[in-house]
Task: inverse folding
């Protein structure tokens, strides 16, 4: 009886592993296709095929294209959150600098372009992306606001700093730099712009010279 239960548990784990592997492959294929063809030019059938499975697998896993797009955005966001969580910095100014450095360090043009195109699509209320990106936008602003408040509390950020306004400005700068790099990566030196932005953050927020 114990052997039977163990065999069933192993089979269940194997099925879960296979499902997770398939979903990961589908999401990576979706990123690649969105980057190459845009949101509207990507179909469920093509995602399944590009992932190396049947044309119907993406529909089986995600049911609708909207749900696939939502899952793709969530997948990329979770990877970013994990990278940020792995970094250890003092709460306040140093964590804000870390956010800038991570946000302006592109490991993949393909992923960056896919996110950029999904963000553009989120402006329209015809896809399932609008609510997802609104949620992530609020979270990003809140994260920066919290760090500014922490920096004020520990005495390294100016007391006159407006957390809400500074968070909006900084997020706009980060996204603007990323967009310029995506559109003209050969002309925009991302490493240099990252250094310039971190220096701007220190000059703008730091107490003292």
Result:
């Amino acid at each position: 009886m114990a052997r039977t239960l163990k065999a069933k548990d192993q089979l269940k784990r194997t099925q879960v592993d296979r499902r997770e592997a398939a979903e990961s492959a589908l999401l990576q294929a979706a990123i690649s296709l969105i980057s190459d063809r845009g949101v509207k030019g990507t179909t469920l059938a093509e995602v399944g095929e590009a992932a190396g499975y049947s044309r119907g697998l993406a529909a089986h896993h995600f049911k609708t294209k909207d749900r696939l797009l939502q899952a793709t955005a969530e997948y990329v966001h979770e990877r970013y959150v994990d990278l940020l969580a792995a970094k250890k910095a003092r709460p306040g100014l140093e964590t804000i600098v870390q956010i800038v450095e991570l946000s302006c360090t592109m490991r993949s043009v393909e992923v960056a372009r896919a996110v950029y195109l999904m963000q553009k699509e989120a402006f329209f209320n015809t896809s399932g992306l609008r609510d997802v990106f609104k949620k992530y936008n609020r979270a990003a602003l809140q994260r920066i606001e919290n760090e500014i408040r922490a920096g004020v509390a520990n005495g390294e950020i100016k007391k006159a700093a407006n957390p809400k306004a500074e968070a909006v400005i900084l997020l706009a700068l980060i996204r603007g730099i990323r967009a310029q790099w995506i559109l003209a990566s050969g002309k925009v030196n991302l490493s240099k712009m990252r250094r310039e932005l971190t220096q701007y953050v220190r000059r703008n927020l730091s107490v003292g010279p």
